[in-house]
């Protein structure tokens, strides 16, 4: 069964090569992507079941045992996030296919989109499953190279500038990442995460703190943690809706996952992490206030993305089982809801021809289904009961109160305030875009780019794909009990780490 651990990485890589070779056949490209992502969803579901019932599933690549070789590890956390991410990437692919067929016709193929999209999916899967720091670096580089191609397709000067900002910041972060790996290896003689978890405690306290802070900076850039967030609001809004949706839903969460994994398995904290609690509060506040200042719908959603990264940092800062349970629930919720909102934004701009809220109006009458598809994830993002956002925020607030420290109480109050600010931002979008008189769509400002807007219509696959993610968000709320139970077991594994280390380093059959 260990071969199942490699499939989410190897399948999309092989499919990307095949899709590139068959780039002249549009329907073949689409079928390859749909089939591969469907298989990964099924594979992730099996991995989650096995890891929850029997413990982590480990594949030692090439027959080399850990910590010498490459380990791929599927535990409760990685399998759960892989499953949710695969559902999102599948829905976004359906949306993008529907958009392209509606805009360019069924026979018009895309040489670059499908291969690069599958490469991106492989990078995300590798980030979740890798058991060592260097292959985590490789995963981020795969995501960076493929995302740069996706963000600059059918280039304009604005998109090139945004893409360069994204790429330069990511490359600087990558340089810090590879430097951090070198320092960790020089200090411990290993980069295997399970082995590091056993050896990091023997390092001098000052060195451990320095390496831990460097890790926070590296992954803080990837996760768009304030004050390292400045690249995100300028980069994401310029891309087509499917690309922005998968970036917003997944890439920053991979950074959060890397933070959670390293800060629990390698760098231990014995009480609430006051530095991370402070960063969480600042991130929540800056992102929410930035969102309120925006007239551009996509920039507003990008700032809200930054704000809600703060909630995940909040749970990590509390640093107990309850806090990490809240983080896991929030990541699962936010992957789904944030991707959905950017897809809905794409539907809105197709109807209006603009992303400027001041030039929208009347969509509740002109496109009532789009109004419903926006309202449900918007309420969930704001934490309104009984949606998934309320379930996740409630878990975080209970963890904050249960921590019993002044810092945790302050961040708990900040979380409530930023939830209200998020609700206000969503209400502002509703009143400007959906209420009022119906406005005629504005003409497409740049018919030569990848974005086709102002059509006044949306193709059925785009609406269905968005509806699937909305239904997934509702399902998270309906299944809150079982999901919370799995998240709590995953959080317990993270806090102790022995299960992970034993599975990787001892008693594992090498393949």
List the helices and strands and how they pair.
Blueprint: H1 3-21, H2 26-54, E1 57-60, E2 71-74, H3 76-104, H4 113-129, H5 133-151, H6 157-188, H7 193-199, H8 205-223, H9 232-235, H10 241-265, H11 274-292, H12 297-318, H13 321-352, H14 363-366, H15 368-382, H16 388-403, H17 406-434, H18 460-478, H19 480-496, H20 498-505
Antiparallel strand pairs: 1-2
Structure description:
Helix 12 (297-318) packs antiparallel against helix 13. The longest helix is centred in the middle third of the chain and has 32 residues, at 157-188. It is built from 20 helices and 2 strands. The model is unreliable at 507-511 (pLDDT under 50). Helices cover 75% and strands 2% of the residues. The radius of gyration is 22 Å and the shape is globular. The chain has 511 residues and is mainly alpha-helical. The protein has helices spanning 3-21, 26-54, 76-104, 113-129, 133-151, 157-188, 193-199, 205-223, 232-235, 241-265, 274-292, 297-318, 321-352, 363-366, 368-382, 388-403, 406-434, 460-478, 480-496, 498-505; strands spanning 57-60, 71-74. Strands 1-2 form a two-stranded antiparallel ribbon.
If helices are DSSP runs of H or I spanning 4 or more residues, what is the number of helices?
Answer: 20
Percent helix, as a range, is over 70%
SS content category = mainly alpha
Q: Major β-sheet, in short?
A: 2 strands, antiparallel
What is the CA-based Rg, rounded? Answer: 22 Å
Strand content: under 5%
Separation of the first and last Cα atoms: 10 Å
Given as residue ranges, the uncertain stretches (5+ residues, pLDDT < 50) are 507-511
Mean pLDDT: 89
Question: Within the largest sheet, what's the order of strands?
Answer: 1-2
Number of strands: 2
Principal-axes shape call: globular
**SSE order in H/E notation?**
HHEEHHHHHHHHHHHHHHHHHH
* Oligomeric state: single chain
């Amino acid at each position: 069964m260990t071969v199942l651990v490699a499939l989410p990485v190897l399948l999309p890589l092989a499919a990307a090569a095949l899709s590139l070779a068959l780039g002249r056949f549009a329907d073949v490209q689409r079928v390859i992507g749909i089939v591969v992502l469907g298989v990964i969803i099924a594979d992730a579901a099996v991995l989650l079941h096995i890891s929850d019932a029997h413990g982590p599933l480990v594949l030692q690549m090439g027959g080399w045992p850990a910590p010498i070789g490459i380990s791929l590890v599927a535990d409760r956390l990685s399998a759960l996030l892989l499953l949710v991410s695969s559902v999102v990437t599948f829905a976004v692919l359906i949306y993008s296919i529907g958009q392209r067929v509606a805009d360019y016709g069924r026979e018009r193929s895309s040489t670059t989109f499908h291969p690069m999209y599958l490469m991106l999916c492989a990078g995300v899967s590798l980030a979740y499953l890798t058991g060592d720091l260097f292959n985590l670096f490789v995963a981020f580089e795969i995501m960076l190279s493929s995302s740069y191609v996706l963000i600059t397709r059918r280039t304009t000067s604005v998109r090139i500038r945004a893409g360069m900002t994204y790429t330069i910041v990511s490359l600087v972060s990558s340089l810090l990442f590879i430097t951090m790996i070198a320092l960790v290896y020089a200090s411990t003689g290993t980069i295997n995460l399970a082995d590091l978890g056993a050896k990091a405690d023997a390092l001098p306290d000052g060195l451990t703190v320095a390496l831990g802070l460097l890790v926070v900076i590296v992954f803080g850039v990837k996760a768009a943690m304030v004050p390292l967030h400045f690249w995100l609001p300028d980069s994401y809004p310029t891309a087509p809706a499917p690309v922005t949706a998968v970036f917003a839903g997944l890439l920053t969460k991979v950074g959060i996952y890397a933070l959670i994994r390293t800060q629990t398995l390698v760098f231990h904290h014995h009480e609430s992490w006051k530095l991370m609690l402070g960063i969480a509060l600042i991130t929540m506040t800056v992102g929410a206030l930035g969102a309120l200042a925006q007239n551009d719908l996509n920039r507003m959603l990008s700032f809200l993305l930054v704000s809600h990264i703060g909630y995940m940092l909040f749970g990590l800062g509390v640093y107990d089982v309850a806090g990490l349970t809240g983080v896991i629930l929030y990541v699962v919720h936010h992957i789904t809801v944030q991707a959905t909102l950017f897809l809905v934004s794409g539907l809105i701009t197709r109807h209006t021809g603009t992303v400027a809220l001041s030039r929208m109006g009347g969509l509740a009458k002109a496109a009532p289904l789009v109004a419903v598809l926006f309202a449900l994830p918007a309420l969930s993002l704001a934490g309104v009961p009984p949606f998934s956002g309320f379930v996740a925020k409630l878990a975080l607030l209970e963890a904050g109160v249960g921590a019993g420290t002044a810092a945790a109480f302050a961040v708990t109050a900040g979380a409530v305030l930023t939830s209200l600010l998020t609700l206000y931002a969503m209400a502002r979008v509703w009143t400007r875009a959906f209420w009022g008189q119906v406005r005629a769509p504005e003409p497409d400002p740049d018919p030569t780019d990848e974005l086709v807007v102002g059509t006044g219509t949306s193709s059925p696959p785009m609406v269905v794909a968005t509806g699937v993610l909305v239904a997934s968000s509702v399902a998270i709320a309906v299944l809150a009990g079982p999901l919370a139970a799995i998240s709590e077991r995953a959080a317990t594994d993270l806090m102790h780490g022995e299960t992970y280390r034993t599975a990787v380093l001892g008693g594992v059959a090498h393949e």
